[in-house]
Inverse folding.
């Protein structure tokens, strides 16, 4: 380490000690490591596509504490683990915006079929069928049915419960869920072809608000499928009142 770099590190350390109410110790420690050119992992000599729309370029990516710390020429930097990425592209993880891994992930938490394609985030709960939220009776019925298909599963009926189950599972991919409007309708009216009552709509709106608070990312519908096919336009508008993202499998493809 050169004298100038040592002085920079010393100054940074002094500031860090003085500002006791600033960023966490971990963040401060990572800043020092970045300045000193020390990483946990370096991906070297890859073709980097950074996702901004700019042209790809040759370079390295330095990682520490599971976060990207530097991108560029890191030929002078050191790391505990180095990967030669010559001939490979280094890209941000892909997001699968329409996934049906809601329950399949519990059969194989590694999600090999997605990871090998570069997918690191999946959005489930598509086409009006989501893994939550459920009423009590529908939650028990869905749990029993899905266990018959996918094997032993933890029980949940809320979006928070679903996320807790994924956390306990230790999935290799990030998973977020939409709220299925078909599941919401099924919980109130089963497969009956009728208009939902005001009371049922109030219950549905409460379930939607709770699910959004717990991290659901929008509302989905599958208007080709039962019981979502019984949903009217007015019903869907009412469900979307507090929703910012709505995706649909159209009534007629």
């Amino acid at each position: 380490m050169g004298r100038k770099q040592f002085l920079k590190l010393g100054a940074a350390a002094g500031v860090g000690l003085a500002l006791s109410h600033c960023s966490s110790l971990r963040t401060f420690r990572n800043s020092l490591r970045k300045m000193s050119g020390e990483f946990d992992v370096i991906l070297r000599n890859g073709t980097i596509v950074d996702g901004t729309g700019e042209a790809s370029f040759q370079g390295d990516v330095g990682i520490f504490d599971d976060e990207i710390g530097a991108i560029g020429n890191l030929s002078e930097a050191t790391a505990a683990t180095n990967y030669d990425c010559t001939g490979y592209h280094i890209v941000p993880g892909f997001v699968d915006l329409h996934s049906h891994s809601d329950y399949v992930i519990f059969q194989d938490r590694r999600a090999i079929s997605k990871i090998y394609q570069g997918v690191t985030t999946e959005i489930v709960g598509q086409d009006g069928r989501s893994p939550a939220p459920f009423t009590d009776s529908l939650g028990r019925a869905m749990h029993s049915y899905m266990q018959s298909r996918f094997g032993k599963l933890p029980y949940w009926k809320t979006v928070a419960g679903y996320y807790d189950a994924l956390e306990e599972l230790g999935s290799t991919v990030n998973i977020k869920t939409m709220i299925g409007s078909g599941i919401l309708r099924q919980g109130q009216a089963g497969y009956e072809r009728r208009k939902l009552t005001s009371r049922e709509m109030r219950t549905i709106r409460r379930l939607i608000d709770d699910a959004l608070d717990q991290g659901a990312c929008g509302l989905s519908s599958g208007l080709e499928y039962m019981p979502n096919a019984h949903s009217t336009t007015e019903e869907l508008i009412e469900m979307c009142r507090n929703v910012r993202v709505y995706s649909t499998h159209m009534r007629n493809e």
